[in-house]
Fold this protein.
Amino acid sequence: MTKKIYLAGPDVFLPDALEVGRRKAELCADHGLQGLFPLDNAVALAAHDASLQIFQGNEAMMNDADAIIANLTPFRGPSADAGTVYELGYMAGRGKLVLGYSNDPATYVERVARFETIETRDGLLIGADGLAVEDFGLADNLMLIHCLDLHGTPLVTPHAAPADLWHDLASFTACVRIAAQRLGPKQAR
Amino acid sequence: MTKKIYLAGPDVFLPDALEVGRRKAELCADHGLQGLFPLDNAVALAAHDASLQIFQGNEAMMNDADAIIANLTPFRGPSADAGTVYELGYMAGRGKLVLGYSNDPATYVERVARFETIETRDGLLIGADGLAVEDFGLADNLMLIHCLDLHGTPLVTPHAAPADLWHDLASFTACVRIAAQRLGPKQAR
């Protein structure tokens, strides 16, 4: 049976989200996998319980999927999109294969420094909020990064950020290739 | 047996993190619960694999816990701390009771507007990055909020943000009270 991949990411917020989802699903199909894109769930946005319907649709898709490929490119701040991170955790908790990529290869410290001044106090990096800045040379919070290391495959990043951070699918495609190998290479072509 | 609560939050990055963890654990004990605070895991920060040790310690704690209380107060941007959100998802995936609070009661749209100008295009709110701003009147991404609604109890928030966003434990205490009721009221005192 064709293995299913839940396609998580802030891609759903793009103006051309449906087209991006279609391209991602095509790339999955090229590797013998079925991509499940959140916007495939039909929800009337004007419905009074639209957000709840979206949650329930996404959760059902995740329960149905064998793996997740999470777009962990930083979103409105130094870290990945909260909804995507939630879904990464949920899939790890369910014991599914977890993969992720970030089109921005910068470390967390470099990312925080784009938004605020970081001070050094007693050998610790401290952000503008007075809270410590995680400094392990990782791209994001250690929980996300090591989740991928231990329950899937290390975060996939390009050597340099691509010109189009939200449409370049090279690192996504690398994740698809790994997922195909891990979930049954016989289905890859 | 005493039920265990995993105490998730960016509290670990506070200068007085150990003291905050101690207060949170005390509040749990007052309600017949055992609080598990991430910094209770002894890790030598200078170790070459310190971040991996922290991940493994936190994951073991979560597997051991009956519930999570997540501090979802926005952290370095409009959304909650990525590590905390990951842990919320992980615990939901494991079928554990999930509770969360935010000391900032603002909606996601209000939070985004603090950092950037939001435009309206074709009836949709669009952020400075050109991506849509979720507009369901919720405090954060719908995945987090409805996870709490369906797998625990709705997000706990104060009517107004407290003077000390990172040390006020009123909403945390409300979560502890709910957890005690849900996990076995006989142990509450």
